[in-house]
Amino acid sequence: MGNPNSGKSSLFNLLTGLNQKVGNFPGVTVDKKTGKSILSKNTTVNVVDLPGTYSLYPKSDDEIVTFDVLFDDDELVQIDVVVVVADASNLKRNLLFCSQIIDIKKPVVIVLTMMDIAKRKGVQIDINGLSRELGYPVLAINPRNNRGIAEVKNNWN
Ligand SMILES: Nc1nc2c(ncn2[C@@H]2O[C@H](COP(=O)(O)OP(=O)(O)O)[C@@H](O)[C@H]2O)c(=O)[nH]1
Ligand SMILES: [Mg+2]
Q1: What is the pLDDT of residues 75-113, one digit of tens each?
Q2: Ligand 1 contact via 13 beta carbon (within 6 Å)
């Protein structure tokens, strides 16, 4: 989950590769992409790429889909872990959404993307400090060069 254009599908594609399925959520024409990701010899997980949302107060069909999944109202998707993808170059806005997810008290992992763009803007992020403050794992990735993907997989194991 995460804001639009934060890098969710990029991460999803790297995690699932060719093991993807596209469907629709019941009743709405919003794409549901699911896929399997092999984390280790003994662990395979189902990953769901949800539509981007700016807040947990849904306004569009897309946002309602994400909302329903998050609040266990989607029969077909049950959450074990919420991976919140946050654009590090727009951290304030992205963390707002992140804090709303954290309030729901589901297990959360925060994945920061766009670290390269943040760096170019002169923004430095204290990843360990952020993790300490939020109380959840924070990992940085760059889907464009595969950086950090192995760490995301290991974090689930
Ligand atoms: N520079 C840079 N671009 C990224 C990064 N992560 C994703 N992108 C790009 O950002 C755009 C939006 O990514 P996408 O995965 O479609 O975002 P989504 O809307 O959250 O699914 C794409 O062009 C990606 O290639 C990153 O860490 N750095
Ligand atoms: Mg996407």
Answers
A1: 778 899 999 999 999 999 999 999 999 999 999 999 999
A2: no
**pTM of the complete model:** 0.94
Total of domains in the chain? 1
Q: Is residue 61 part of a domain?
A: yes
Query: What b/e sequence results for 15-40 when a residue is b if at least 16 CB atoms lie within 10 Å of its CB, and e otherwise?
Result: bbeeeeeeeebeeeebebbbbebebe
7 ligand 1 Cβ < 6 A: yes
- Using CA atoms, how far residue 114 sits from 17, 18, 58, 101, 134, in Å, is 21, 24, 25, 20, 20
Q: How far apart are the first and last CA of the chain?
A: 20
CATH of the domain at 40: 3.40.50.300
Give pLDDT tens digits for 52-79. Answer: 998 888 888 888 888 888 888 777 788 9
What separation in Å is there between the alpha carbon of 53 and the centre of ligand 2? 11
